[in-house]
């Protein structure tokens, strides 16, 4: 939580700056409400979440003076209300095994790192993990996944650059089934420039998976970079359409003032948030704690 607090502090400071000097009455004035709503929008919570929080605050009667501190505490309560329904850790429940988790996201979002971190979390719960290098478009992506696999001590199924992702996924599922792997985490290409190709590729992967196990993929996790602010929302839009996203992981919440976008995403899409990334290391993936995050944002 040290790491996380560090991450959201900038958002929080900005919000505090914007809220400083407010207060005095037990009910907020229209002017104060406007100012709070603006501050929330500036903090990347988006117009919908900001309006919802404004409405709640308008009804709220403060015990004593509604000073900056009291207002922030109430904002945190309302943010937590929005975040709580989407907090949902990724659990390994698939039967038969393996649980197949497709991980998608634009290049640079932290996809590969998140795969390694997820693998590490699963290992801590004593699950057997396997990785598959389904992003065959970038040689670097394959290499990077192999390096993480070595660090974790888990098998990585990979082919050559330019190979067929569907055939790698096929091999990986077969192998994972044979050796009784609990969780198979699959890296996929993140080319948003060519939506058609990306869709075709994912459709092919799904088809192969479906043949081996009609339940697979069990999860389609979209990795989003918090530093992209509102752009993260348009990525949800595109990937929902092209990939059937079932949940989110937001990365780089350390050292960004844009963590509020998580609230915007929760309000707008209601997709489960599995975890958050707060650094570059293996153990820098944290369970998503809505109350903690709400307190830190506000
Ligand atoms: P990919 O292209 O989506 O696979 O992205 P990578 O996993 O290679 O990550 C891109 C860069 O972001 C790397 O330098 C990572 O170390 C870094 N990164 C990933 N997740 C986080 C995070 O939560 N916090 C920080 N600060 N950096 C991260």
Automatic annotation (TrEMBL):
Catalytic activity: GTP + H2O = GDP + phosphate + H(+)
Subcellular location(s) per record: Cell inner membrane; Cell membrane; Cytoplasm
Quaternary structure annotation from Swiss-Prot or TrEMBL: Part of the signal recognition particle protein translocation system, which is composed of SRP and FtsY. SRP is a ribonucleoprotein composed of Ffh and a 4.5S RNA molecule.
Listed transmembrane segments: none
GO terms assigned for molecular function: GTP binding; GTPase activity; signal recognition particle binding
Species: Alteriqipengyuania halimionae
GO biological process: SRP-dependent cotranslational protein targeting to membrane
Name the UniProt record assigns to this protein: Signal recognition particle receptor FtsY
Membrane topology: Peripheral membrane protein
GO CC, any one term: plasma membrane
One Pfam family in the UniProt entry: SRP54_N
All copies of domain SRP54-type proteins GTP-binding, residue ranges: 98-298
Signal recognition particle SRP54 helical bundle domain sequence ranges: 7-83
Highest taxon of source: Bacteria
Encoding gene (name): ftsY
Known function: Involved in targeting and insertion of nascent membrane proteins into the cytoplasmic membrane. Acts as a receptor for the complex formed by the signal recognition particle (SRP) and the ribosome-nascent chain (RNC). Interaction with SRP-RNC leads to the transfer of the RNC complex to the Sec translocase for insertion into the membrane, the hydrolysis of GTP by both Ffh and FtsY, and the dissociation of the SRP-FtsY complex into the individual components.
AAA+ ATPase domain location: 97-248
Protein family per UniProt: Belongs to the GTP-binding SRP family. FtsY subfamily.
């Amino acid at each position: 939580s040290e790491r996380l607090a560090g991450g959201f502090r900038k958002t929080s400071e900005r919000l505090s700056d914007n809220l400083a000097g407010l207060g005095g009455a037990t009910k907020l004035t229209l002017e104060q409400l406007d100012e709070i709503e603006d501050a929330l929008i500036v903090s990347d919570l988006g117009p919908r979440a900001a309006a919802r929080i404004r409405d709640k605050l308008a009804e709220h009667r403060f015990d004593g003076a509604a000073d900056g501190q009291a207002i922030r505490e109430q904002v945190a309560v309302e943010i937590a209300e929005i975040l709580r329904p989407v907090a949902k850790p990724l659990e390994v429940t698939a039967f038969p095994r393996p649980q197949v988790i497709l991980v998608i996201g634009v290049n640079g979002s932290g996809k590969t790192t998140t795969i390694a971190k997820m693998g590490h979390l699963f290992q801590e719960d004593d699950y057997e993990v396997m990785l598959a290098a389904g992003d065959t478009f970038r040689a670097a992506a394959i290499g990077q996944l192999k390096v993480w696999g070595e660090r974790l001590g888990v098998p990585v199924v990979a082919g050559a650059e330019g190979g067929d992702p569907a055939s790698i996924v096929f091999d990986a599922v077969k192998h994972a089934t044979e050796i009784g792997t609990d969780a198979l985490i699959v890296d996929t290409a993140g080319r948003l420039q060519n939506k058609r190709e990306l869709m075709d590729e994912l459709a092919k992967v799904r088809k192969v998976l479906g043949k081996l196990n009609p339940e697979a993929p069990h999860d389609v996790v979209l990795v989003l970079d918090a530093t992209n602010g509102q752009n993260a929302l348009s990525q949800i839009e595109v990937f929902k359409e092209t990939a059937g996203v079932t949940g989110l992981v937001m990365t780089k919440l350390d050292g960004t003032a844009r963590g509020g976008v998580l609230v915007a995403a929760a309000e707008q899409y209601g997709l489960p948030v599995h975890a958050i990334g707060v650094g570059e290391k293996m153990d820098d993936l944290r369970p998503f704690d809505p109350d903690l995050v709400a307190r830190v944002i506000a």
